[in-house]
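Pipeline run #58 for the internal structure catalog. This entry was flagged by the ingest filter as a single-chain record with no existing model, so it goes straight to prediction. Upstream metadata was stripped on purpose; only the residue string is passed forward. Reviewer on rotation: M.T. Logging verbosity set to normal.
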Amino acid sequence: MTVLIKNRQRLIRINQQEINSRSRKALRLLGLKGTELSILLVNDREMQRLNFTHRGMDKTTDVLSFPQNPPLPPFSTGGQGGITGRDVLLGDIVIN
C-alpha cells in the first residue's frame, strides 16, 4: 500500500508523516492493502482553479476526489481479505 502526499500550500504547517500513517491505517481497515492513493494539499486559489477546470464551478471547496478505476468490490470492515497483490491506483484526493 502506497500513499503519496504533495503539499502545495504554505499557510498551514502539515505533518505529512501523520497524514501518511492515518491514511495507511484507513486503507488497511478497509481491506485495501494493495492500493495506491495520492493526496494533494492546496490553497484556496488552486482549489478554485481545479474546481472550475474539472467541475465548472468557479468557487473554492474543501475536497475534490478523482477516482482512477471503476468502483472496487465491497470491502470488509474487519480488515480481512480485500485487495492484495499488484497495486490498484485508487485515485487522487485534493484537500484545501
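catalog note: The chain is about 25% helix and 25% strand.
catalog note: Helices lie at 16-29, 44-55.
status: ready for reviewer M.T.
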